[in-house]
Amino acid sequence: MIEFKAECGHTVRARDEDAGGVVRCSYCGRNAAVPDNAASNLDFLFAEAQPAAEEEGGRRRRRRRKKLEAAPKQKRPSEFDPFSIILRLCYGAVLIIIVVVVARKFVIPLFDPQKRAQILSGVSPGAPPPAQKTDSARSAARSRGDGLVRETKLTGLYVASSPSGASVYCQEESKAPSTGRINQAQGGLQARTPGEIPHVPDGNYVVEVAFPWNDPNLSDPSLPNYRNYMDFRRKIEHASSDQRKHLAEEYFVPDEATAVFIDQTEDQIFLVRQYRGVSVRAGQSKGVRALFLPKLYAADRKTFLVEPLVTGYLPAVKNYEFDEKHVRGELAYYGVAEADQPFVLEGLSRIGVMPYMTADGRVRFFKIDIRDGAFATRVIRESS
Fold first, then answer.
1. How far is 344 from 39, CA to CA, in rounded Å?
2. Are residues 57 and 153 both part of a single domain?
3. Chain segment 294-338, per-residue pLDDT in tens
4. I want to staple 171 with a disulfide (CB 3.0 to 4.6 A). Which of 85, 176, 311, 370 is the partner?
5. Per residue in 29-62, pLDDT tens?
6. Are both 155 and 303 inside the same structural domain?
């Protein structure tokens, strides 16, 4: 039996012997050519079945894909990746470093009361207090060497006092009166402490530093008064000139002053310290640093103390830089007690000078050069 498609699309069956002949289609009534052999018929059937098979295969593949997508994905067995491990270790190290830096900068300082106060006040730990010199000033000072920390180079006669704010009078020694005050001398120079009298010609000078006895730096009731200062004022008010000089020498610590005055005018009384033989060479001097600081006696009344003087009366700002290790060794050599050495060093760093009474009763005056930070000392009072 031969089956084939007529032109109308209807399946026509013919006998084998009709192969190659013509038969009538029972559906449309038209003649239809019978294929020559069965192979052609089979090819026709295969061609007809192939699209259906391909369609069925596509449906099966789509169903299989949907099942695979719906099924939970299985994890592939992990493989050893050294690069990934190294990368994770690097990330961990960076995180540890960040934690350590933050802890040291912000967390640990909170356990230090001073640094905690700085943080709460908006000042970074380690930053200098507002009153201190700036880093640029200190860097400039180091470029010139140690000594007085200033933003500009000294060019003349430098005069300072403790406390600051004193009046300064300067006169060439050859033109100054041989005794007494020089504040009324003709041609004198004036300034205030701390300060500089620039462009002073080379020569020897007399320098006078004076405070009115009621100056706020000494007697302002709103400030911590100098110890027994009001009693000192009452004593000198009606004392003689010699008695006043003695009282001033007993009340204030000694320095390099060649004369100490209590000078009274019609309206005021002045505390005066005078320095003769101040030399200026090559346009510069070693400076004058006057001390109006109370003499704080020990219990035996034979020695005066440096610890309460430094901690209670000197400014907190460090104005001088020098080789502290070298100076400490020098202090030990000159007989400064080990317990006093830190306070003498601190005083030198703040005001550049410091008197000290050694065990033999002599008073030494230690000082730091204002230009190069060199250490020097001299005896200013022998033992009595």
1. 125
2. no
3. 999 888 778 889 999 999 999 999 999 999 999 999 999 999 999
4. 176
5. 788 787 876 444 555 554 555 555 566 666 777 7
6. yes
Q: Is residue 96 part of a domain?
A: no
Helix ranges (H only) for the chain are: 38-70, 82-102, 113-120, 135-144, 216-219, 229-237, 241-251, 307-313, 324-333, 341-351
pLDDT band at 192 (very low <50, low <70, confident <90, very high): very high
Residue 17's CB: how many other CB atoms inside 10 A?
Answer: 9
Give the integer Cα–Cα distance in Å for 351 and 289.
Answer: 8
Q: Is the pLDDT of residue 222 over 80?
A: no
Burial class, 352, CB count within 10 angstroms (exposed 0-12 / middle 13-18 / buried 19+): buried
Q: How many domains does the chain have?
A: 2
* Residue 205, Cβ density class (10 Å: 0-12 exposed, 13-18 middle, ≥19 buried): buried
What's the whole-number mean pLDDT along residues 129-150? 53
Residue 201 CA to residue 188 CA, distance in Å, equals 13
Question: What range does the domain containing 275 cover?
Answer: 141-381
Do 353 and 247 fall within a single domain? Answer: yes
**Would you say residue 56 lies in a domain?**
yes
- Within a domain: residue 19? yes
- 3-state secondary structure (DSSP) of residue 92: helix
Q: What sign results for the dihedral spanned by CA atoms 29, 35, 37, 38? A: negative
> What pLDDT is stored for residue 342 in this prediction?
96
Residue 252 three-state SS = strand
Dihedral sign for Cα 193, 278, 203, 143, please: negative
Mapping DSSP to helix (H, G, I), strand (E, B) and coil, where does residue 15 land?
coil
* 119 in any annotated domain: no
**What is residue 61's predicted lDDT score, i.e. its pLDDT?**
73
Distances (CA, A) of 373 to 21, 148, 182, 195, 343: 134, 7, 31, 18, 18
Q: Of 163, 169, 166, nearest to 189 (Cα)? A: 169
Are both 263 and 367 inside the same structural domain? Answer: yes
- Lookup: tokens for 365: 């005056």
Q: What's the mean pLDDT in 327-351? A: 96
